[in-house]
Structures are given as structure tokens and as C-alpha cells.
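TL;DR need C-alpha cells for one chain.
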Amino acid sequence: MHIPPRVLTVAGSDSGGGAGIQADLKTMLALGTHGMSVVTAVTAQNSLGVQGAWELPAEAVRAQFRSVVDDIGVQAVKTGMLSSAELVETVAELLAGLRVPVVIDPVGVSKHGDALLAATALDAVRTALLPTATVATPNLDEVAQLTGIRVEEEADMRRAAAAILDFGPRWALIKGGHLPAGRDDSAVDLLTDGTEEHWLRAPRHDNRHTHGTGCTLASALAAQLAKGDTVPQATAAAKDYVTGALAAGFRLGAGIGPVDHGWRWSRRDAH
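>> reply
TL;DR here they are.
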């Protein structure tokens, strides 16, 4: 009997299915792992934006986490939307007791610009959550929120990574997808632990349907770590997966559609 690696997402629910725990679980399945979830918040969300969000009590988050970890066990954890200082601190305390890789996606705003983290929670992210991370995966807006550093060109990414590493994660993955395209028209990310540096480049795709990109990358990274990859190996594999998912993103509703988590299956079926 084959038992797949077990990966846990601690994140909010996206009713539209493109981001949040829905994206996480699809990604984990696509990469051959068993995904499990701790729901931190419920959002009313579609292709146009977030119409409402309701945070779950810390007690409910703690109970879900203990229920899964104490019986089933986990080989990697990924966090997403935590919304409040209380939930950030609760999750940080739970993660501190684990001895498995942890990917922290410090979700601040949605693809549509809707706030998903209270301003009062930023200090807790810096001082309690990021120190638990094997890898932290901020985008450029989240870098600015957490450090005050505005990354406007590729050369700024080293300084941003150093500032994130100062908060305590073992590795920082600075996602440069929001930068203007470089000379080679690539999307570049920087992975570093302060000593090693890995610049990851992938072709940009002219596709506006990119909802769920950050959740998908962080979940893919956690899935690869659960399978035994090193952090650089896991990051390269996650980047490859999310690049394909971005290229295959499709229209849903009247706004921004999701990336295609099943793009490898679709491509295989087409042949």
C-alpha cells in the first residue's frame, strides 16, 4: 500500500476555488501528496474580488491543527491567510512544536487588492511567524509591508531578502513576478539563505488569469519538501509547476480567472 507524503495547509477558504485552501489542496494532489487543511477564515470570493471575510476562532484553528497532526501526522506545512494577530500568534505557537519543513506565505492582500491581513498583525508575522519558517515566500507588496523596502528592479531583491531573513526564516524566496519584464522577458525570483543564492527565471506568459499564483507556489514548495527535496530543489520544481499553471490559466466569471492546477494532466490527456 502506497501512502503519499502528507502536507497540511493552514489558510483561508476561497469560495471561487482559485486560491486559498482550495488552490493548496489541488496543488498538493497534482504533485502526488495527500493534502489536509486547517481553515483559518471563510471568504466570499469570486473572479471580481473578495465580498466578505469571516475569521474563525483561535480555538477552532487550534482544534483542527491538533486533530490532524496528532493522529495523521504531517511531513510539511504551508500557511496562507491568517488575518489577525491572534491567529498569527496561535499558528506560530502550533508550528513551533513541529520538526518538519514549514513554508510561510505571508499573505497580505488578494490578487484584487483586498486586505487579507490586519495591519495590527504585521508585528506578529515578523516576530512570531517568520522565525518558524523553513522558507518564507513574500511577493514584492508583502516585502514592502513587512520591511518597508520597495523593490523596483532586480538589484533590489538581495536587500529585500536580507531584510526578510533578519526576521528568522532559514530561507527567503523573494518573488519578482510584479517587476517589469527584464531584457530576457523573464519572471525572476531570488532564493537565498544569506549564503547560497539561487536566481530562478521562467518565461512570462501573456495571460491575465493568474488568481492563486502565490498560494499555488507555496503549496508546491511544501509538497516537494514533503517528498524529500532540498529547499533549492523544491523551489525549482515549484517554480516549474506554477509557470505551467500560469500559462494554462483560464477565464472564469467576469474578472481574473485562476491558474490551472491540473495543467499537467490536461496536457497529458491532449496527447
